[in-house]
Design goal:
The protein has 288 residues and is mainly alpha-helical. The chain has a domain of 200 residues. The strands form two sheets. The chain has a three-stranded mixed beta sheet with strand order 3-4-5. The chain has a two-stranded antiparallel sheet with strand order 1-2. The protein is globular and about 50 Å long. The N and C termini lie far apart (164 Å).
């Protein structure tokens, strides 16, 4: 009985010790929610991170249209060389210093060579073609005179407008071809007052080159100056005695009405539709 009591006491003591151990066992802690959110924020927001990852720079779109879209190829031939020669050797009245031109023959030849290396094509505007061929015609006319100078008249040269001295592109040209097969076919009768035949009764050689930017105004001025020059045309309301240019190329001046209609666009005096018409003798003396 005594032993049984002892065993019972021992068992009770052991049971109490086990319960105490279970009660005092520490409980695992979950990290506070605020701290967890702070950690996540630091890891996912680059702006708040103390260590930043380098970014790959994306090229910004350019607004430079010229770089993105190639320009349309349009030839713009420079006539500055011819312009310099004209200003140097031609007066405002159109008198040409052929002796002076002879001293600058190399510069003239260089300009003609440049013309030959830049023949107009289909990409050129009409204004560019007009300026090119008018300047070419006049430069070749001066060159023709220099090849035979001194002379009294262009008519002292054998078949002057049929001589093929000049190679433009792959072809040898003469003055007749440039005037009749190229310039006249461009349907602008004002060209007759821009190209010259090195003669007194011809329109004066301008002392500036024609350019595509100014050619319309230049042609208007040349036409008005020629028509209202009393040494080349006598104009009154009821009677006109005009240059034979209007006879030789009469068809060109009747594209949009009668010859009188054309003259009245540029004449300082209004001409009657019934005005008497005659033509002046042509003076082929050299325009120097």
């Amino acid at each position: 009985m005594k032993h049984l009591l002892v065993i019972t006491v021992v068992l009770l003591l052991l049971a109490c010790a086990g319960t105490k151990n279970i009660t005092e066992q520490p409980i695992a802690k979950t990290p506070p929610i605020e701290k967890t959110e702070h950690v996540v924020t630091e890891q996912t927001t680059p702006a708040e991170s103390t260590t930043k990852t380098p970014k790959t720079k994306v090229p910004e779109p350019t607004n430079n249209i010229e770089q993105e879209t190639p320009e349309v190829a349009v030839s713009t031939f420079n006539h500055n060389d011819w312009d310099s020669l004209l200003q140097k050797h031609v007066t405002a009245q159109g008198n040409v210093n052929y002796k002076g031109f002879k001293t600058d023959r190399k510069a003239l030849t260089t300009y003609i060579t440049k013309l030959g290396n830049h023949l107009p094509d289909n990409t050129w505007l009409k204004e560019e073609k007009l300026a090119y061929w008018i300047n070419a015609y006049n430069a070749l006319t001066v060159d023709l005179i220099l090849r035979h100078y001194p002379i009294k008249s262009i008519k002292d040269i054998n078949a002057p407008w049929d001589q093929r001295f000049w190679k433009l592109g792959n072809k040898w040209y003469n003055l007749n071809e440039i005037e009749h097969d190229i310039l006249r076919k461009m349907d602008d009768p004002r060209i007759h007052f821009a190209i010259v035949c090195a003669s007194f009764s011809c329109p004066k050689l301008q002392n500036e080159a024609f350019t595509s930017q100014t050619i319309n105004n230049q042609l208007n001025l040349a036409t008005k100056a020629f028509l209202n020059d009393p040494s080349r045309n006598d104009i009154s309301e009821n009677s006109i005695k005009i240059s034979k240019i209007f006879q030789w190329f009469s068809k060109d001046f009747k594209q949009h009405g009668s010859l009188i209609d054309f003259l009245n666009r540029y004449s300082a005096i209004t001409i009657s539709a019934k005005a008497k018409k005659s033509y002046k003798d042509y003076n082929w003396d050299l325009n120097e």
